[in-house]
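task queued by scheduler; priority normal; single chain, no ligands, no partner chains; default sampling; output format set to structure tokens
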Amino acid sequence: MPQKEHGFELRQERYDRRVMKLAFLPLLSLLLCAHAIGQKVQPTKIHVRGIELHYIEQGQGEPLILLHGGQGDYRSWEPQMKVLFPKYRVISYSRRYNYPNNNPLTAKYHSAYTEADDLAAFIRKLKLGPVHLVGTSIGAFTALVLAVKHPEMVRSLVLAEPPVHQWVRDTPDGAAAYKDFMTNILEPARAAFKAGDDKKAMKFFVDGIIGTGRFDRLPPEGLAAVMQNSRFFKANTLSSDPFPNLSKERVKRLLIPTLIITGENTIKIHKLVNEELARLLPKAKQAIIPKAGHGSPRENPEAFNEAMLKFLARLGNDAF
């Protein structure tokens, strides 16, 4: 029996790693083409809370803000902007440590809470009033934190896999996934960042998720794209609490219409967090994006856009 159990664990570990690699490959494609995305529209720069933020906007109507993930920046949402701007005033901005922002890495604490405070200041600066928020990964976490802290600022939420890891790390399945990520990726990357070797740190992220040797085989433009947004990973990885908890009780009280999006092929920890989020939110709908992992807005934009647009179209009727 112990041998059978050990064999099952090995098979499960290999399966989880294969899924993780499949989930990250489209994100690597995003990095490789990052220079081409959004170059037709030059970003505007504004200053809030002592930092600079670059953004682009298109369209008119109710304001809708797009919040990218760790690997992305304001250019990441081109497939979504083109379907949203006919009806909304669509704004895509780069969070404080993502390209092309050049804010100093000064704070010892950086997380979605920092980003949410930036977002609140951004909304006030542009006098946007209540906004629709569409976020992926850490961008979704940022949107959720803002909604909890300032519900009056938010009309609706589209959340694609916010990494609220603390919610599941004490469960049997969640604990194993969390430990694997911390031990094999985050902790060695943190050591490399502390040693001043940013490339080595990003190598842990790329090789740990995609596969050994992939970082060294990146073409020059791919390496440049990876390193453009490495400053976010450095700030978050070196933070005293990179994945802080979020009060479940406060989330339960949110009455904001919400769409929770899960990639069909995403890794287990993200699925577990989304399941808990769906259980907590009283006015949440769910959508599964086929043939996509953690980066569903880019991996399957057609399906992502269909789910998002359907959700937004229902906000004015009795569906919520």
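post-processing summary
- The two ends are 50 Å apart (CA to CA).
- Residues 1-39 have pLDDT under 50 and may be disordered.
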